[in-house]
Amino acid sequence: MEFRCPSETVILEEKYFSYPLTSVACNLKLTEKVLFVGITTKDKTEVEKIFLDDIVGCHAFRGKNGKTKIETSEHSAYFCIYAYPLKTFTGILSKQHRREKRNLTFLMRKNDSEDENYKVVEKWQRAINCLIRGKACVIDGEVSIPDIVPSSKKFLILINPKSGPGKAYQIFKEKVIPLLVESDTQYEVLVTAEDKFSLSKNMWINPFIFIEEQASSGG
């Protein structure tokens, strides 16, 4: 069963299967701002909206003969989106907002060739990554997906292992590195040797990007 999305230009539209529940068919539609996921069960279609502003990255994979260890059809290919939607929680005195990680994987198996299936998912990966990095996929009303995804800026990350409770490196390893990998962000790490350490933006030039005028580290 088809579903309608708003009047935005549909960049890509395709039938996938969810993973790991590969028996569930998903009708995907990608616009400039939203990925619509339509799931039909018993003649009833439910549509979920994944806002591109909440997506940090998208990766494409081949089947079990490729880069993944997923045990399924050798002709399949996949793409996975890494999203951090904003959730609202009711606290004791007020509402609190927090982003929670959510990974969604979609399986493509309509073609008999793994290469053909991978071409499909790679096109989706390219379009999504271009959109979340500010590269247009619709020009003068016509769909035009760039051949190359813009590269991310390179970050210099400062870690002071002696500051605070001394868990800065552990936090970086467990919580920050996965996010950097998901978003294909380039980075270098500088582990400081002093308890109190800061540096001015003027001390550093390209290829690094700074979030604030003054960068500092702590645990």
UniProtKB/TrEMBL annotation:
<dbReference type="GO" id="GO:0046512">
    <property type="term" value="P:sphingosine biosynthetic process"/>
</dbReference>
<protein>
    <submittedName>
        <fullName>Sphk2</fullName>
    </submittedName>
</protein>
<dbReference type="GO" id="GO:0001727">
    <property type="term" value="F:lipid kinase activity"/>
</dbReference>
<dbReference type="InterPro" id="IPR050187">
    <property type="entry name" value="Lipid_Phosphate_FormReg"/>
</dbReference>
<dbReference type="GO" id="GO:0016020">
    <property type="term" value="C:membrane"/>
</dbReference>
<dbReference type="GO" id="GO:0005737">
    <property type="term" value="C:cytoplasm"/>
</dbReference>
<dbReference type="InterPro" id="IPR017438">
    <property type="entry name" value="ATP-NAD_kinase_N"/>
</dbReference>
<dbReference type="InterPro" id="IPR001206">
    <property type="entry name" value="Diacylglycerol_kinase_cat_dom"/>
</dbReference>
<feature type="domain" description="DAGKc">
    <location>
        <begin position="150"/>
        <end position="192"/>
    </location>
</feature>
